[in-house]
């Protein structure tokens, strides 16, 4: 697909963007700024450089052009002056808004969903994940197939290019619908295989790592399962789920690393990733990993819980794992210290005004009734506490599901290793 063409750092010239978001009656200016940080990080993960951010206070988005007239002129001038490749909006735009904005700005117009879809398409490794992303992209595209929004236009490169005429559009829509049903069939087949695979693992307790993107799930997975799992300071480093067998004190369990969540995760993505998310839905225990150093960790917990509810995986036994405690303000003996140049600006920005580990613990005690543990997966801090809690929970579940486990082990002559 043309509009999903990968924006890579390998491109000769790095693509540039300006970001736009509104502070509305429902969204404070502080929140808006924070969302823009995240949007810039998403752009960076896509290989796009952010040159400037525009915010505007409006009660609600302008129905024609999202921002008001004056702000649009300001953005247009900047885009012309700096020959900016694209303007990225933090909220979804209607097809007519896209049309009007394209006419005015004369460059590519993207929204957060499209950016996330693009990153997923870069990251997907397995044929299942690739198919899921492609399905999500076509579903995103279908209602937006207007004159200005077609992927089937000539090979101009980049994402969100100008489209063809009305007649070709009808053909395009038909092609997209056919493609969607084809991809659904393909996914059905892959899912059937996956189901058989999962069934054959029935004899073990299943634990899934869940959490907001970039909180350290893969880092923790690597530490616990002692295997190489890809982790990176980028959003959505993991799109495919990985399963590893872990044995603690003779109790085996399966640990799954899963795709991270984010605010405004495109619904088409959640839908087409349903089967990957089955790993979460079918888990016996969730390790909900939280970036304790992020100023909005509470909101991120809420977003994860909401997404879990959407995929029918709420109300499972859960351990809240507060990670990255090495980045908290030093006041406790367990704190590690991170060299300043080891962190990128994103982390630094979010470190300002941070509470200490004690402050965090107090606040968590007051808000969360679930089991909690405070660790640093990167520095290996407090891992014993996590292991202990995990072992306790896993054994509980293990002996509930497999009451005859020990007996079976003895009679089959295995030692449970
Ligand atoms: N300082 C610090 N950094 C950490 C810690 N754990 C993970 N990180 C860093 O956080 C970044 C994200 O880690 P990942 O393990 O890729 O996070 P993830 O949750 O798997 O992210 P996605 O797959 O993108 O959802 C990486 O740069 C890690 O090195 C920690 O305890 N302390
Ligand atoms: Mg990951």
Automatic annotation (TrEMBL):
Subcellular location as annotated: Cytoplasm
Cofactor: Mg(2+)
Keyword Metal-binding applies: yes
Domain of life of the source: Bacteria
InterPro entries: G_HFLX_dom (IPR030394), GTP-bd (IPR006073), GTP-bd_M (IPR032305), GTPase_HflX (IPR016496), GTPase_HflX_N (IPR025121), GTPase_HflX_N_sf (IPR042108), P-loop_NTPase (IPR027417)
Domain Hflx-type G: 205-398
PROSITE patterns: G_HFLX
Function: GTPase that associates with the 50S ribosomal subunit and may have a role during protein synthesis or ribosome biogenesis.
Subunit structure, interactors included: Monomer. Associates with the 50S ribosomal subunit.
Protein name as annotated: GTPase HflX
Organism: Rhodocytophaga rosea
């Amino acid at each position: 697909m043309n509009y999903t063409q990968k924006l890579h750092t390998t491109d000769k010239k790095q693509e540039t963007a300006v970001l736009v978001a509104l502070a509305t009656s429902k969204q404070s200016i502080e929140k808006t700024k924070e969302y823009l940080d995240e949007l810039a990080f998403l752009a960076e993960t896509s290989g796009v450089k952010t040159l400037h951010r525009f915010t505007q206070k409006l009660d609600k988005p302008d129905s024609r052009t999202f921002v008001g007239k004056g702000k649009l002129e300001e953005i247009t001038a900047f885009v012309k002056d700096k020959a900016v490749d694209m303007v990225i909006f933090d909220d979804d735009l209607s097809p007519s808004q896209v049309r009007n904005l394209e006419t005015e700005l004369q460059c590519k117009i993207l929204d957060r969903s499209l950016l996330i879809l693009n990153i997923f398409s870069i990251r997907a490794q397995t044929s299942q994940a690739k198919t899921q992303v492609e399905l999500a992209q076509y579903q995103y595209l279908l209602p937006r197939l207007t004159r200005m929004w077609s992927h089937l236009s000539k090979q101009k490169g980049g994402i969100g290019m100008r489209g063809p005429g009305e007649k070709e559009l009808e053909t395009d829509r038909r092609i997209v619908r056919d493609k969607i049903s084809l991809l659904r069939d393909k996914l059905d087949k892959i899912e059937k295989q996956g189901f058989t695979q999962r069934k054959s693992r029935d004899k073990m307790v299943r634990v899934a790592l869940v959490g907001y993107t970039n909180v350290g799930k893969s880092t923790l997975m690597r530490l616990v399962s002692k295997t190489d799992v890809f982790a990176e300071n980028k959003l959505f480093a993991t799109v495919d789920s990985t399963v590893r067998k872990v044995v603690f004190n003779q109790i085996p369990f399966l640990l799954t690393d899963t795709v991270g969540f984010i605010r405004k995760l495109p619904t088409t993505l959640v839908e087409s990733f349903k089967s990957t998310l089955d790993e979460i839905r079918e888990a016996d225990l969730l390790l909900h990993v939280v970036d304790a150093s992020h100023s909005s960790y509470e909101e991120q917990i809420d977003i994860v819980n909401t997404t879990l509810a959407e995929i029918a995986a709420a109300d499972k036994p859960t351990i809240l794992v507060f990670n990255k405690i090495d980045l908290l303000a030093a006041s406790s003996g367990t704190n590690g210290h991170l060299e300043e140049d080891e962190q990128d600006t994103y982390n630094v920005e979010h470190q300002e005004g941070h509470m200490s580990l004690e402050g965090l613990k107090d606040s968590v005690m007051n808000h969360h009734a679930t089991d909690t543990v405070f660790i640093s997966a990167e520095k290996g801090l407090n891992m014993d506490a996590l292991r202990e809690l995990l072992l306790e929970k896993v054994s509980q579940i293990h002996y509930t599901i497999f009451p005859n486990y020990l007996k079976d082990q003895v009679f089959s002559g295995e030692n449970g290793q």
